[in-house]
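Entry:
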Amino acid sequence: MEELWQLYDKQGRAISSKGATKDDVFNNGLLHSSSHVWIWRARENQREILLQQRASDKHIWPNRFDTSAAGHIDLDEKPLDAAIREIAEEIGLTIVGDELNLFCVHRTYLKAENGSIENEFQWLYSLELTNKTDFVLQPTEVKSLKWIPLEQFKAENKSEQYLPHGELYYNTVVSAIESAE
């Protein structure tokens, strides 16, 4: 059975028991949702952010750098549960919900190079890591991970190497990480 993604109304509410396939969502621009987790750490008087390089064979934006872990919300799944699931699936990290800090629900409409349409609400979470962590990458999703200083991320997130989330999105991420305690 093909996976169904949860559909949403224009106010950001899940439409009860209404889902669509990935192809239907991308081809028809159906309003759906995703959870994005931005992982950061404090290192030597600066903050670093963990970036994921998307796998080479991803349907949209292959090889681009993006959030630490992210994914679409499955039918009848809550955004927080999707965030926890995606972290475990993509980078092998097991966490509990209260470790995540929801800092924004961002509305976006992006058209990928292949014509796919991302018409979605994005639930943005931050997660601070305080211990050395070994990640286990899901090769079909993640090509690599890298830590970079937040200042470097601020300077280069508009480049072609990043997924084109836009200035408002990236400024919101930076602000959330800079103000996190």
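The chain has four helices and nine strands.
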